[in-house]
Amino acid sequence: MTIYELKVFIKLKLPVDFFQNPEFLSKNINRSFLEDDELRELHIQDGIKPYSIDFLRHDGYRKDSFKAEDEVYFLVRCVSFEIISRMRTCLEISNRLDFEVLGSKISILKPKFIKSLYTMSPAVVTVSIDNKAFCWTKEDSDISELKRSLEVNLKSKFALYGGEFNLKESDEVIDLIEIKNHKPFIFTYKDGQIFAYRYQIYFAENRYAQNLAKIALALGVGEKGSLAFGFARVGRES
Length: 238
What we know:
The chain has helices at 21-32, 37-44, 81-93, 143-161, 207-219; strands spanning 3-12, 51-53, 71-78, 99-109, 116-119, 126-129, 132-135, 174-179, 185-189, 192-196, 199-203, 232-234. The radius of gyration is 17 Å and the shape is globular. Helix content is 27%, strand content 29%. The two termini are 27 Å apart. It is α+β, with helices and mostly antiparallel strands. A four-stranded antiparallel β-sheet has the order 2-3-1-4.
């Protein structure tokens, strides 16, 4: 599987703190889509999007809150070169954004084996209770439900964007999940709250699990990847 990664260097026009990242990034990327008929249609479609977005980052040191005029960057990953190229063009030409684009570049990722993934931005996992969807939290759900929901989500993403491959239901997918924060991050979005955690997820070694790990690297862990949740990197093993 080939994964395309777009790195966008920007200068902010207004301050952005850690908890504003999802709304800030998704709003501006969706605005940029107005420059392209196909991306505009993609935005209004329901369901899983073929890309994921990372939070704002700063080269050189960790920083979660940024001021106006700060020069930062964010990453976008996608399984389609055409879509990520269109996104790049729209971001560079749009004059509707809360940042100035200073430059961008596209890289290609071709992961061979993924032992684990770490969610650089907190991941959202929803579970169904009495036919209602809720964000998973440590307080009211168990790890087996978390594992099941993550695997169902990955299978759905692979079915849409993973290409031709015979997925075997009998193979194990996730060996271990480490939850990296005791309490959830709580984000406000559209008058509601989103609960999210950082995870390190260890995948089985079979071909089935490895293909799902690669789709997670491309499209994020959990849900709402187009809102900048669950953006993942290959785990650093100790």
